[in-house]
Amino acid sequence: MPERLRGRAFWALLILLLLSFCGVSAATLIDLRQDAWMQATNGARSLGAALSQEIRRTLRTYDAALMRVGTSLSDPTVKRLDPSTRQIALFEGTFVDAFLAGVFVTDASGNIIWDRDREPSRLPNLADKSFFKAQRDAADVGLFMSEPFVREDNGADHVVALSRRVRTEDGSFNGVVVGLVRLDAFVRILHGSLLAPGDSINLFTREGVLVARVPDKPDAIGRDMSHTVNVAKFMQAESGVFTGVSAMDGVSRIYSFVHMSDVPIILDVGLAEKNVYASWNRRALTIGLVLVLLSGLTLCLAVLIRREFRRRLETERVLRHSEEQYRLLADHSTDLIIRLDADLARRYVSPAAMPMLGYTPDEMIGQLSRSLIHPDDWTEVQRIAANARQSDKGTETAYRLRTKAGDYVWVEGRYSYVPADGGFIVVLRNISKRRQVEEKLAAAHAELTGLANTDSLTGLANRRRFDEQLKSLCSAPGRAPFSLLMMDIDRFKLFNDRYGHPSGDRCLRQVAEAIKGAFPAEEALAARIGGEELAVLLPGCDLIEAQRTAERICRAVEALAIAHEGNLPNGGVVTISIGCAERSESCDLFQQVTGEADQMLYEAKRSGRNRACSRLTLAQSDEIDVSQTEALRQEAIERFRALRLGRGSVELDALTARLAKLLQAPIGFISLYASEVEIVGRYNISLATTSRDTSFCRLTVQSAEPIVVPDLKADPRFEQNPFVTCEEGSRFYAAAPLIDPHTGVSIGAISVCDAKPRYAFGAEERTLLTTFAHVVMHGLD
Asked: Which residues are catalytic?
């Protein structure tokens, strides 16, 4: 191809490459923007779900009080009471708190006939009020919530009215029961959420009237917003997500809204678009600048490469003129010099071929190089030739050549690439004698290395060999998979104390033999890494196969039937607990692999010993039924409240803060496993209660030993938990159960959390957790 056409093809391919790279980058940015939107909507949904639960619980409490008043009105016993006593009986079921401003009953004409707070009533006729009309005009309205208004008898009170229909014996309308709830009840709930600047949370009635908002906007409370675009969308569907501009402040937000099914409330969470896409905008700008820079550099390099091509063409011309002088040198060299073409066929062989191989040059010229190279070495020669094409300094290796007599000699070959025709100049030197000496030295070194890397008691690899192999697997290119088993002989200290250390040594040797016999893989490495602690590395093995191997080891050790009176819960024989981990996308580094295997080992011990645990068994395991001890637990919780919480939670808060700081955790809390999980000691957490189903401590109370979860997102027991999936959710959890000294049941947990995974959490930290759990329960016996 002429030089001009080659140049045009070169520039066309370069431009096509740059355009392809820009297209891939644009597609990546689009995907990243979509990911940012999905993360924002998931966070908004999670926050909305948590707030909905709290608002629904609050309104149900007030609704229950109204329904009790309505029930008492039709009670014949209450009707026969004198007015004063009847006043008490009617409102006995309603509670007085800071947010329930009043409870009263009207007749069918709207006149107040009963008032919780005073008699006679201080309010006028209510027939014109929306909460009265709604109940009067519709028999099935249920709980109705009015628009916000200011109480006529107290100008400082902003309230909403909750109403329930009062019926006669034949079911006709007979008035309403009304509760006045201060708007501060809703504002308090909304203010508990962590919002970024520009975000908002709004609470509307089903009719589109604004009840509460965060951040506060007092002049908008009570305003009918049903005519605005966003609120109209809220009212058209039960739930949804969309992007819109707020009519109140003009901010563009991503809105997630939901209608609460059993209370007349619409809740929406709005995340400001500027916050959601802030990180994406920075990344897009960075990628754009990098693209411009790389494109400029690529063009500069292309110019340099073209110049280099022209320079090489000139160099080849000079080399051809000098070839005769090089041939003269080759003919008189003791090293064998060979000229190969692009197909690795010999085009020139120096006279040194005769003394080295027994062939004359004419017998070798025209033949392929492979004809004399040992079959086992041909792949290495191909690799060296490929490397030589990419290097202007030449590459070298050692391999075997067949002589004319049929035996083989070792040669050291240096390959230099000739760009002019794609061939090579090869210089071969006989190194057979040197190779023999090297092989003897290598055998001696291998023997010494084996002794240095072997545990003398068990014959397994020692800790040094184990660490070297593990680090080598973690740093291997291509993310080659492997699995790690961490093992510990159950209650081995009790074995040594009962039977003596010589018996302990025999036990270790027997267990080591059982482990080696449980897996056939030659690449696997079994090691003793300290005391009764053992480990197995399984290269190329996924977690499923590792779990099976670990279970075979458990059964093999148990089948030894070595008597162990200190291990009666597991049959009175020596058993072993195993933790399994796999190198994967989420578990790649040395510390992560060993950390996960170590935590799975502790989980195996926590769940009863003589078993193998991994993320697979966590996903398949059933939670322990704790209902058998429920009555004892609730009794113990009441005793704890009386003895520990009588003076408030200051002491428990201080204990929690001290533990969190010692463990360098940003969050700590003490929880009671009551009908709802109650937070009674806290550090950097505002949550007061949560349901049992979503609580972390539901697993902690199932065992007397601590639980540690290095990465909640990687643990199938927690990966769908709303406290993990929400924005800035928890990633690490560790807790020790609070054991009641009277009954031995667990009543809750002392816990620490972190927003980042933590794999370096060992025996010392677990002991600290257990110690603080004992301190919390101290004095209850």
From this structure: 532
